[in-house]
Design goal:
Structural class: mainly alpha
Number of strands: 7
Shape: globular
Order of helices and strands: HHEEHHHHHHHHHHHHHHHHHHEHEHEHEE
Strand content: 5-15%
Distance between the termini: 81 Å
Helix content: 55-70%
Strand order of the largest sheet: 4-3-5-7-6
Number of helices: 23
Radius of gyration: 25 Å
Number of domains: 2
Amino acid sequence: MRPRISPWWWALGLILGLRLVSMAWLPLAGTSEPRYAEVARLMAVTGDWITPWFTPDQPFWGKPPLSFWTEALAFRLLGVTELAARLPSWLATLGSMGLLFVYARRFFGERIAQGAVLIYATCALVYIASGAVITDPFLALATTWAMVALALSAKTRHPAWRYGFFVALALGLLAKGPLMLVLVAGPLLPLVILYPSIRSAFKQLPWLGGLALMLLLSAPWYLLAELKTPGFLNYFLVGEHFLRFIDSGWAGDLYGVAHRRIKGAIWADALMASFPWGLVALALLLRQLWNPVKRSALWQMRRDPDKAYLVAWTLFTPAFFSLSDNILWTYMLPALAPFSVLLALALAPAQASSKVARRLLVALTSLVPLALTAYMVLGVLDPLRLKTEKHLVAYAMHQMQAEDKLLYLNEIPFSATFYSRGQAGAITLKELTRQTRPTHRLYLALPKDDLNRVSKILNQPLKPLFESHEFVLTEIAGRPNNP
């Protein structure tokens, strides 16, 4: 007789499977995904594993290379596809889920571990980031690994956890930089001071050998990157990690614009990132605070070092980023693993005693995966919904002959660069009017509202051939070669 597979495994498999399908079907859209994918594609093409490149002529100093390494390797193994670009983030999220399950099961039992993983997997930010070409899933994996390793090193002296703490720190340094050290040291500092059991686990870590291992794994890349492109360390350590944090209008950004927000906006991001579970947690918290007995019980929770560990781990990230007004909602990702365990603990009594509560939890678990799957279907059926140049570039490339060119007016979108494999370019209107009529055809993509204006300036009719979300493709015919 075959063993019965738990419904939990079916649910988790369906959630992960749906995300895998959407990763393969949806084109790279927006700004960040195609930009990072193009950096990884250039790494795979050039074989330069030290310096990520923003363009073939401009090094990308904004992020360490870990995510680009994994994506470039995926391109070489699987080809340059959306699935290959996104698969490393999916695997990193899977790793975070595995660590979360091991930790929660050891400290709180199997049912809490299962609930925590399902909550984590279906938080809006986790579900979206798990199939996106961004660096944050790797930082979340590193922070989760470090915090889990420290907690489990108190239960066992196995070197896999004791040295794993320092391997995780190295991973974070290669994924996001020194921010990794802040996000781990920040919650641990008050915990080490206030809780003897946590202080004991912290002291028993192999600090001399562990720090040497961390530096051995991470420092060589930093030194090689500076030697290869001098100026990297100053830009990355001072600019990206200090000036960006304190100055929302930082003018030194080489690759984009500042993400200016009001201070404290990260708490609104926390609700969005943890949707729908953040709203559930907020409702439960307000209910606890309203009842004097439950409020007292909530306050007594501080005496439990295991739960205090989760609270500090959860709250430090939003508290830290409350000091900055240059933030993105993805910064909340490292806090969602401990949040999921805390919420699973809070929901356990209702789940065990009420069928209505269990059905509601099933509905909440399904909400984000089904919503994103519906978005994928709409995006496939109506590509104009998506801010991507995949289909326009494909149409132009199909029409083009060897000497023809695809150019975008003024500035080329990152998705056009990625999907054209670097063949598309940009041209200004001034350059366009000055050049002599070429012998080859020119395929010009320009903002939709500019078609008639450019047609008048060039004094020739321009017919729309294909449209994307933002651009329209037209053709400027070349003159025939004289015999």
